[in-house]
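Need residues for this backbone.
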């Protein structure tokens, strides 16, 4: 199944204009589509990407990982202090 073209505004390219602290939730998407995520304590983050795929992503502390995600799950997520970046 071909993916929809991602709008240019959703390309994961810094610098980011906005940040939001994330509380992981299994039943709710983020208030915005994030173009990058970081955390204060390294760990695994379970995400749903723009295409609807769910994956476990290892995230190092203090480094922005450029990935377009619409949900960060609480189940299986071990990283803490998660922040989402977007334009």
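Answer:
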């Amino acid at each position: 199944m071909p993916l929809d073209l991602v709008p240019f505004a959703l390309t994961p390219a810094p610098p980011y204009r906005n940040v939001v602290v994330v509380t992981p939730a299994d039943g709710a998407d983020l208030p915005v589509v994030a173009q990058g995520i970081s955390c204060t304590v390294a760990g695994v983050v379970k995400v749903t990407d723009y295409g609807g795929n769910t994956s476990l992503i290892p995230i190092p502390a203090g480094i922005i990982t450029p990935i377009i995600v619409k949900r960060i799950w609480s189940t299986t997520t071990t990283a803490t202090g998660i922040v989402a970046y977007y334009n």
